[in-house]
Specification:
Elements: E1 2-6, H1 14-24, E2 28-34, E3 53-55, E4 61-63, H2 67-78, E5 85-91, H3 99-102, H4 104-114, E6 119-124, H5 132-144, E7 155-160, E8 169-173, E9 178-179, E10 186-189, E11 195-198, E12 205-207, H6 213-218, E13 221-226, H7 237-244
Parallel strand pairs: 1-2, 1-5, 2-4, 5-6, 6-7, 8-13
Antiparallel strand pairs: 3-4, 7-13, 9-12, 10-11
Helix pairs in contact: 1-5, 2-4
Length: about 240
């Protein structure tokens, strides 16, 4: 099995290094990741400038671009073969509910999916990297499941509680929960006295009931959510057609 690995925390992040080490034991891996933290980059591509690719001493490729750039460049410019799987992460913190729309971690996996390759995004349930090696071991377990019951390609979003491996509950299939709207921006002044703004924290959970990713992780379970890309609001098509008649 040949696996392309990327992330949004950058090629030096503990998460991608732990994930690469865990998967190298069971697959042929290539790592192509951003040169720095690109959290929140979503599915953006860099179209305003050229991208450069460099190789670190450990063999990882790093790109001065977004997570989506990294997977795109890897699949169309670096690799001379088609990987069997694209894996992203392990992210420093959760990507649940509405987070998935902004997440660079999920975006890297999504780019692989859009190229017709099965893809999995991995995130830890809390920030701080606690038990990252246990999360990487669990991620390897998930990869080795192969998911033969799913149509190809598939796109899975996995959130792993920050717990020792032995305490991680059996993975459960979940749907995305929802958050309340985000907190307001944080106003500040730069050293020259000019007003600046920091994006505020995400909103609190709104829909975190049984069956959601939020609920599973809160219960110490590994959440696996199948994602799709079709954004069409199908139930409004007929109403829109009538309004346009």
């Amino acid at each position: 099995m040949r696996i392309l690995i990327s992330n949004d925390d950058g090629y030096l992040a503990p998460g991608i290094n732990a994930l690469a080490e865990a998967l190298a034991a069971v697959a042929e891996i290539v790592v192509v990741a951003p040169d720095s933290n690109r959290s929140g980059a979503s599915n953006s591509l860099s179209l305003d400038r050229p991208l450069s690719v460099q190789r670190a001493a450990n063999g990882f490729y790093f790109v001065n671009g977004t997570p989506t750039d990294c997977v795109h460049v890897a699949l169309t410019g670096i690799l001379d073969y088609r990987p069997d799987l694209v894996v992203s992460g392990i992210n420093n913190g959760p990507n649940m509910g509405d987070d998935t729309l902004y997440s660079g971690t999920v975006a890297a996996a999504t780019e692989g999916y859009l190229f017709g390759i099965p893809a999995i995004a991995f995130s830890q349930g809390s920030h701080g990297w606690e038990h990252i090696d246990d999360a990487a071991r669990l991620a390897r377990d998930v990869v080795l499941r192969h998911f033969d019951t799913l149509a190809r390609p598939y796109l899975l979003n996995v959130n792993i509680p920050n717990l020792p491996y032995e305490r991680l509950g059996r993975p459960v299939a979940t749907r995305l929960g929802r958050r309340h709207q985000a907190e307001p921006v944080i106003r500040a002044l730069d050293p020259r006295g000019k007003e600046i703004f920091w994006i505020g924290p995400p909103g609190a959970t709104k829909d975190a009931g049984a069956g959601t990713d939020f609920h599973a992780v809160a219960q110490g379970r590994v959440s696996i959510t199948p994602l799709q890309i079709d954004l069409t609001h199908s139930t409004q098509l007929d109403a829109l057609a009538k309004g346009l008649a």
